[in-house]
Amino acid sequence: MQQPGRFIAVWSLRRLPLCVRLLGLLALASLFGGCNSSSTDNVWSRLQKSDNWVSALIQPIVPTTPSQAARDMFNVYDADARRMGVALISGSPFGGEDPYLRAYRLLEDDPDPVVRGTVAQALGLHGDVSDAPALIHMLKDKSDFVRWQAALALTKIHDTAAAEPLIVVLQQDEDVDARSAAAYALGQYAEVPVFDALVGALNDIDYSVADSASRSLYLLTGTYQGTDGQRWI
């Protein structure tokens, strides 16, 4: 089932050096008491007036201020605002700071699937092995988008407890993207059941899954046999 969230783009502030510096300072200051919301908004307004190209690029796709984005993560009335807040903060250079990590973790069970998927993406970018249990739990989510993002996050966060649940996704999930991400994530676990599951996935009806499986087999063995299961056996 196609999910509209598939096309969510996490805006990277790294492409805008001036904004990166200002947004980081403004967000940290507003969250930790360095300045109040009014002064933050005033500085942001001056930036918009002095750098018209920046304003034109940013204004249609981001909240008014970084402090507003942080507040939007907990907007109980608007799931889209929560999703945008998580995406904007996690895509920023300061998105891995402890206060933001705590915020992502509080939203792991958000009632909206697009928010949960965006949180999984944020944890994949900035989380650690302590986030593996939550991501493993997300592999069973009813939403294809959430399962896909959780499997992607587990390509970066390594925990042996994730191997078996990823095999289940690879063998049973109806979503192609989730299966493909699971196949790639399994390339971190040099275990016989993992090898067997990846060889079996070479016969997947979707080539992207078979290709991911062959890449993981290459990572595990150091040899390349393509997508021919017989050659791997």
What does this structure look like?
With about 230 residues, the chain is an all-alpha fold. Helices cover about 60% and strands about 0% of the residues. The chain has helices at about 15-30, 35-50, 50-60, 65-70, 80-90, 100-105, 115-125, 130-140, 145-155, 165-170, 175-185, 190-200, 205-220, 230.
Query: How many angstroms separate the termini?
Result: 33 Å
Report the portion of residues in β strands. Answer: under 5%
Element pattern in H and E: HHHHHHHHHHHHHH
Q: What is the overall pLDDT average?
A: 79
Q: How much is the radius of gyration in Å?
A: 20 Å
Contiguous runs where pLDDT drops below 50 for at least 5 residues = 1-59
User: Which sheet architecture does the biggest sheet show?
Assistant: none
Q: Please state the structural category.
A: mainly alpha
State the share of residues found in helices, binned by percent. 55-70%
- In DSSP terms (H or I, runs of 4 or more residues), the helix count works out at 14
Shape: elongated
Count all strands and give the number: 0
